[in-house]
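Researcher: Quick test of sequence recovery. Tokens follow.
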């Protein structure tokens, strides 16, 4: 079993569901009756799983919204340590056989498995979050302009820093997280000259725990804070909780990711230190895919969230952020520039 922090456990405990165990992973499921055509959607979680207070939980929120609206009894399956692509394929195929539709792989690591499973179950709609490489008539690639929200996070960090040193912590050194880093760095540089951005990746591969180790995030953040950073932005899944914890302990700002982490119950005791969050609407993407299947018009192809369509954004929940006119004016100006094309945000 993967290691989960006490913070994560608290998040999981808030929504405990009946647990069943199968050969393809542990599942939080209301029903797994074979042959039921109205079961609803199935989520296959990425590393970090449920309780990451990040994009796995955002996907869960989309599933729960679909359940409520359509009367579904959806399921969500946790990943296992050290699993292979073959294990992922088996998981997705089992869900499709049981009658779940759509079946969604939450994370780019599911791309090979989604491609293989979708070919075997052409009447089932599959979704993949954070990957756009699958070209199939029954697959929806749910992707986002993460660099745009990260640019706004960089603007906010540059306006908030007093030390002129800010930090970026990426979970795993992969192209997806490079987008977060690139947008953040550009936003900082375009906003305030002379600000240093310290960047660090926790691991080279997801298997090493870069997205699922709050202790790694905490240690990295402490190092950056010791080096002068007074704002730290993490794109690291569950590991980001450790970054937020460290920022709170050292009385500096953290910037959350994927979900509005200021509002997360499991992070409530740290929320005064969460300046804002660079969000992507995974909840909406999951719900929209489920609705399209329910309506008989399944989404397929690349579906990309942006500032323009509301797929990415910067949260406004912390009064310290919302009430800072200089920050708000700078963020609004940057957002308008991205939308009208006068600001072109880099992805690497």
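Model:
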């Amino acid at each position: 079993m993967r290691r989960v922090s006490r913070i994560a456990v608290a998040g999981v405990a808030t929504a405990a569901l009946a647990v069943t165990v199968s050969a393809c992973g542990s599942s939080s499921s209301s029903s797994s009756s074979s042959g039921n055509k109205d079961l609803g959607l199935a989520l296959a979680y990425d590393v970090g799983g449920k309780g990451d207070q990040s994009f796995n939980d955002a996907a869960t929120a989309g599933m729960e919204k679909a359940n409520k609206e359509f009367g579904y009894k959806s399921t969500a399956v946790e990943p296992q340590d050290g699993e292979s692509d073959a294990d992922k394929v088996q998981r997705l195929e089992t869900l499709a056989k049981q009658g779940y539709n759509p079946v969604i792989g939450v994370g780019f690591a599911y791309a090979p498995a989604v491609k293989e499973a979708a070919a075997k179950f052409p009447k089932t709609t599959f979704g993949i979050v954070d990957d756009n490489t699958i070209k199939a008539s029954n697959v929806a690639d749910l992707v986002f302009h993460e660099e745009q929200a990260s640019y706004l996070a960089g603007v906010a960090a540059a306006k908030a820093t007093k030390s002129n040193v800010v930090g970026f912590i990426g979970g795993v050194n992969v192209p997806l997280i490079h987008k977060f880093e690139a947008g953040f760095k550009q936003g900082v540089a375009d906003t305030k000259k002379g600000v240093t951005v310290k960047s660090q990746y926790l691991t080279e591969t997801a298997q090493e725990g870069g997205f699922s180790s709050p202790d790694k995030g905490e240690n990295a953040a402490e190092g950056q804070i010791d080096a002068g950073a007074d704002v730290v932005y993490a794109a690291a899944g569950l590991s980001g909780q450790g970054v937020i914890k460290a920022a709170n302990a050292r009385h500096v700002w953290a910037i959350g990711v994927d979900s509005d982490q200021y509002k997360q119950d499991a992070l409530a005791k740290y929320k005064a230190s969460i300046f804002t969050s660079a969000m992507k609407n995974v909840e909406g993407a999951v719900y929209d895919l489920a609705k399209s299947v329910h309506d008989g018009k399944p989404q397929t192809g690349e579906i990309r969230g942006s500032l323009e369509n509301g797929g990415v954004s910067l949260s406004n929940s912390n009064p310290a952020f919302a009430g800072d006119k200089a920050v708000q004016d700078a963020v609004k100006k940057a957002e308008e520039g991205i939308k009208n094309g006068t600001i072109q945000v880099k992805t690497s």
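Residues 175-191 form the longest helix (17 residues).
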